[in-house]
Design brief:
Blueprint lengths: L2 H47 L8 H13 L8 H10 L3 H15 L3 H8 L2 H12 L10 H16 L2 E2 L2 E2 L3 H10 L3 H15 L3 H8 L4 H10 L5
Antiparallel strand pairs: 1-2
Helix pairs in contact: 1-4, 2-3, 2-4, 3-6, 6-7, 7-8, 7-9
Length: 226
């Protein structure tokens, strides 16, 4: 082999080595980036976690929602705990902060996790709980709740268990407990009629077992008329 060919072969090996070293450097750089990113996310999460020790903070609400998703390791989501957590959030302004806190705590999108954890009817119910809130505390939301209550009741009626139709009775009770007066219930029934073209009381009777209808209506009848 001539000296020129030897030098050429040497140059080829040098190029290969450069490529390998360059690729190795990119791998190390990429790995370093992900390690730094993970460290930063953990630091943010740990900082936000400290805020969950205070009652009523966005971080506390976010953690309660996550705990409802995890359901103490049991299959499915604890919808009762989730519903209660969402109902405790005072307004949409606070809910926006809960979404941001949830992202910091768990590096995940709350609205995506809601849709992933819940059936369609359950998801619709939770959305109505959120949408019915005032923008800020003190602005009042009762006038908005009639439609939201009607939609939540319809979602409860449309509940299914696999391929079997069912009724989310806890969701019905939650709505009935929220409705403040008999007059508000009548307006909710009116909204239900406008939205679905059906009679709320007739649908309620058809969804419940024999004797349950009267027990549910007692919740409403015990409320003040106006």
């Amino acid at each position: 082999m001539t000296k020129a060919l030897k030098n050429k072969e040497k140059d080829k090996l040098t190029v290969k080595e450069k490529i390998l070293y360059g690729a190795g450097g990119l791998v190390l750089l990429g790995g370093g980036f992900f390690l730094v990113r993970k460290w930063v996310l953990n630091a943010i999460s740990n900082h936000e976690e400290k805020k969950t020790l205070e009652e009523g903070t966005p971080a506390t609400f976010a953690k309660q929602i996550k705990m409802a998703f995890e359901n103490d390791g049991w299959l499915g989501t604890d919808t009762t705990a989730l519903r209660n957590a969402l109902r405790e959030i005072p307004d949409r302004n606070t809910f926006d902060k809960v979404v941001k806190s949830y992202q910091k705590l768990y590096n995940s999108n709350l609205m995506y996790d809601l849709s992933d954890e819940l059936q369609t009817t359950e998801y619709n119910e939770m959305l109505q709980i959120i949408d019915a809130k005032p923008e800020k505390v003190g602005q009042g939301a009762v006038q908005l709740n009639y439609e939201a209550w009607a939609k939540r009741l319809k979602a409860a009626f449309d509940k299914s268990y696999g391929f079997l139709p069912g009724t989310d009775e806890e969701a019905i009770v939650a709505v009935f407990n929220e409705i403040p007066t008999q007059a508000a219930f009548i307006k909710t029934a009116g909204e239900y009629k406008n939205l679905y073209g059906k009679n709320l009381l007739s649908d309620l009777k058809s969804e419940l077992e024999f004797g349950e209808y009267e027990a549910y209506m007692i919740i409403i009848l015990k409320k003040p008329k106006v």
